[in-house]
Amino acid sequence: MTKPQAGFTLLELVIAIAIFALLGVACWRLFDGVLRAERSSSAHEQTLRGLQRAVALIERDVLHLHTSATSPGLVLYPSQLNLRRANWRNPLGQPRSELQDVSYTLENGELWRYSQGLEGGELQKQKLLTDVRDLRWRLYDPALGWRTDWPTGKAAPKGTPRALELQFSAGRFEQLRRVMLLPEGQ
């Protein structure tokens, strides 16, 4: 009598290889899905951080708004905000004023911040946001309500505005709105 041979038949080997191949493809698809979700959430987080950084910079400038009897410190046009801010950091102790003129402008879908000291010097240009589709500024006047411009001179309203509203759409975010209280005038 001959002993039966131990081992697998060709059909059993083909079935085992097919099962392992299916498991490998399923694991690869799962891993690829996790990588895609991680990339998407990382891009979303980067965009959100950029938005938060830009709004925080605007809030900081608005918080340090400098108004006086001779200068309103704030001029608003439909597409541009100009303000004068105080408490400009001077870490090197240079002989200069703590006042700085700041302007926010939308140019070709990019929000730019321009700043310059009162003594002149170099104009600093900083890109805050890209892919901005819509940008609107409004100021709240207690007597007249929300205004899209804030004139100066003889046409200037009495008093100072109480709040600044920023509305914009950028990147994958639609109709973001931020209202910032303005400091009282001196």
Automatic annotation (TrEMBL):
Keyword Chloroplast attributed: no
Pfam families named in the record: N_methyl (PF07963), T2SSJ (PF11612)
Locations listed in the record: Cell inner membrane
Membrane topology: Single-pass membrane protein
Region forming the signal peptide: none
Keywords: Cell inner membrane, Cell membrane, Membrane, Methylation, Transmembrane, Transmembrane helix
Coiled coil: none
GO biological process: protein secretion by the type II secretion system
Transmembrane segment boundaries: 6-31
Name recorded for this polypeptide: Type II secretion system protein J
Organism this protein belongs to: Pseudomonas helleri
